């Protein structure tokens, strides 16, 4: 019997947030040029956590959302 399970890489939590924010941009709720702090309006319950994570990755709350969406790799070296 063979195991046909497809193994997917584990997505970094910031990658998951990035996908959610991209979806909000795609839906028109956010614009790529909006400041990152606007994400807080839509992630109100978890914003304190995500804000700290973004700051840890050296984002400013005034940076455009597009700069966050442009990150291709969330490795923490």
The averaged pLDDT comes out at 89
- Total count of domains: 1
- Structural class, by secondary structure, is mainly alpha
Number of DSSP helical runs: 4
Largest sheet: none
Count all strands and give the number: 0
Specify the helix fraction band.
40-55%
Shape: globular
Strand content: under 5%
Based on CA atoms alone, the radius of gyration comes out at: 15 Å
- The low-confidence runs, each spanning 5 or more residues with pLDDT under 50, are none
The helix/strand order is: HHHH
Terminus-to-terminus distance: 40 Å
What does this entry look like structurally?
Helices cover 43% and strands 0% of the residues. The protein is mainly α. The protein has one domain. The mean pLDDT is 89. InterPro entries: DUF4327 (IPR025477).
SSE layout and pairing:
Blueprint (H helix, E strand, L loop, with lengths): L12 H14 L12 H4 L4 H10 L8 H5 L8
Characteristic key phrases:
single chain; 77 residues; mainly alpha; 4 helices; 43% helix
Gist?
The chain is mainly α and 77 residues long.
